[in-house]
Amino acid sequence: MKVAVIGGTRMVLGFALAGVKRTYVAGDPESVSAALFECLHDPDVAVILLQQDLAGLTGDLLDRVRREKGAFPMIVECPGEEGRGLREDAFARSIRTLAALGMRETGGAA
User: Fold this and answer.
1) Buried b or exposed e, range 52-89, using 16+ CB within 10 angstroms
2) Helix (H, G, I), strand (E, B) or coil at 50
3) What's this model's pTM, rounded to 2 decimal places?
4) Hey, which residues does 48 pair with through a beta bridge?
């Protein structure tokens, strides 16, 4: 399973230096959507790290993808290059999804 990163130049460079191979520099709605679609159609991508301020450029696309695809691949919104914090709802949603996946894998109650 692979991790993909969609973000600005600095974020992508940072993750590339950390060893992430699937990286997409994006800055406008078209490039974000194109990268997202490419990641969603790759069965090896399990986690998509999406720069938070770019997530807003997708309109309702991100919500539709989450509804249709469910928890896989997991899409996690990360703070942008400006260092802005995560919106609490996006962070909480990611944590709830991770917890639910862990419960399913271990056979625990959800």
Assistant:
1) bbbbebbeeebeebeeeeeeebbbbbbbbeeeeeeeee
2) strand
3) 0.72
4) 4, 75
Q: Considering only CA atoms, which of 5, 92, 91 is closest in space to residue 54? A: 5
Question: Beta-strand (E) ranges in 1-110?
Answer: 2-7, 22-25, 45-51, 74-78
Residue 59: helix, strand or coil by DSSP? coil
Contact by Cβ (8 Å): 4, 49: yes
CB atoms near residue 30 (< 10 Å): 10
Largest CA distance in the chain: 41
pLDDT digits (tens, 9 = 90+) for 22-64: 999 998 999 999 999 999 899 999 899 999 888 888 778 777 8
Give CA separation, 65 vs 18, 24, 62, 84, 98, in Å. 27, 18, 5, 24, 17
